[in-house]
Each structure stands twice: as C-alpha cells, then as structure tokens.
C-alpha cells in the first residue's frame, strides 16, 4: 500500500438519486442582472484571511461548521497541500465562491479530490460554481489526476462524501459527470454519564501478556511500523494525534511489539472525532478493539465533549453493541473517471 503527494505538493437506488435532481434541473430560474453589472474574478492561492473564508464557508453550509483553525488544518495542514488548487471567486470585493482540491497517488492510481467547496447563497445559479469547478478540474488533470472524487479524501478530510441533504451540491456533481459508487456512514456516541472503564478487561489482557496504555513519543515509530502492514493511509491521522499533549493515541503491546492502536483527534481537531483504530491479527478476538475504543471515548469525555463522532464506519454493529452508538449521517461517495 503506497501513497504519495504530487510534485507540487508541498442508501438508496440510483433511480431515486437521479430523481432528486429532476425538479431542480428542470425548474426555471429568473435571470438576474448582477453578473453583468459586477465582474467575477478567480483568485489562486491560500486565502488572505482564514477568518473571512471560514465565516464564508460556515454561513453557506447548512449542516456543517468550520472555524479558522480547522480550516487551516484542511488547507495548509493537508500532507499534499498545493495552493494552485485553492481558488476563490470574488464579485467585486466580495467573496462569492471557494473551492479547494488535492491530489493523491493511492495504490498506484492517480486521484484528484474536491475537498471543500461553497458558493454564496445569493450568487448561486449564476455559473460561479461551474467556473470554479471547471478551473479546478483542469488543474487536477494537468497535475496527473485520472480519477476524480468528491470530499472523501484519505489522510485529511472534512466530510467523507456529499451529504444528500445538500441536494443542489449532489445535483451539481451529477452535472459534472460524477456518479455515486458507495456510501460512508458517520455514527454518534453520547458520552454524558457513560462509564467507559476498562480496568477489569485490562487486567485480563495483562494476564495474557498484553499491555494496554497511552502511547508516548518514543512509540511513534513502532506504531507507524504497524500501520505499514495494512493501514498506511492512516499515517497522517496518527501523526496528528501524536502531536497532542498527551498523545491522543492508545496502544496494545505484546512481546514488545505494538499490536493494536486507537486514535482520537487525529482529523478535524477539536470536533470530538474518533478513529482510526486497528488490531493486528495476532490480537483479534481478545476484545482489544472495545478496550481501545473506550479509552479514547473516556479521553473525550474528560475533555468536555458530550458526543463522539465515529466517521466513515464499516462495523456499525460493533459500535452499536459496545458503546450504544447510532447512525447520524450518511454521505454519498461520488466518482468520475477522466476520459
């Protein structure tokens, strides 16, 4: 499993999904005179003001929030951050639209991702989003992208796909040639009043030769070695969590080797984000995942979080059974192959 930056790099049927857009695409939208009166220009590069751009995105996303520090993590904090793929549309001196894309090479395939995008509500349906996207796609192709995806960016992402409640965004992706190839599910775990004690389970594991503890900086190389076995795409999130003081990483050690890990606050810092988590086959079936999960949730509980977000979930039954987590959001993953 290999990933690299580019050289600049620093539940439903398809018929139903198509039907969601029919009314919007066939509707008549009154023509405005604003575009003819005010020239719209695209500006390349990192935003002049993180505060202004974060506020812009925040007010134009109905179901998500972002702030300057989190925006910085998504932009320059990306392991392949490239300012040439960051574009802002201005109508006169007012921000009217924003898009940020990234490149990834994953398992030998060249991907381009739309990572963040919004258009000011009062400027929608005036081709600003189309201009931003067309320019971004052109640049992704010039940088070698062969497959394009929307939001589900490995290593550093804000959303793992398009929330279908953003119906115009989904319809826009369809018009650009994307199709839905899967779903990503986020779960929520309520933390208030919950007991996440793992002492008894850890005593049992110790009797079997397994030590469970919080990771320290001296463990980082051993953790990355474990990740290299089958979780290389999680390196960045683990590194980010290791930067916390103390590290937001818990590990299990057997025969002086790290055999399992769990992480929180490794992506979308400050939001109560759990994961990733992994266990080497040698320790599967020991209840290791439950212990490591609860250790992270106990951390988040102590930090004052009332809920933990468990993103991009595969084992839904595991989280539901052991910590009473429930499905919160569903995202549609969109893809387009470059011809």
Note down, in words, how this protein is organized.
Helix content is 32%, strand content 28%. It is of the alpha+beta class and 339 residues long. Helix 5 links the parallel strand 5 and strand 6. It starts with a strand and ends with a strand. The N terminus is likely disordered.
Topology:
Blueprint: E1 3-4, H1 14-26, H2 34-37, E2 40-44, H3 50-60, H4 68-74, E3 86-91, E4 94-106, E5 109-119, H5 128-142, E6 147-150, H6 167-175, E7 179-190, H7 199-207, E8 210-214, H8 220-230, H9 235-242, E9 249-254, E10 257-264, E11 274-279, H10 288-302, E12 307-310, H11 316-323, E13 326-337
Parallel strand pairs: 5-6
Antiparallel strand pairs: 1-4, 2-3, 3-4, 4-5, 6-13, 7-12, 7-13, 8-9, 9-10, 10-11
Radius of gyration: 22 Å
State the order of secondary-structure elements, H for helix, E for strand.
EHHEHHEEEHEHEHEHHEEEHEHE
Q: Unreliable stretches, pLDDT < 50, 5 or more residues?
A: 1-34
pLDDT averaged residue by residue: 90
Helix content: 25-40%
How far the N terminus sits from the C terminus, by CA atoms, comes to 26 Å
Shape: elongated
Strand content: 25-35%
The major sheet is characterized as: 9 strands, mixed
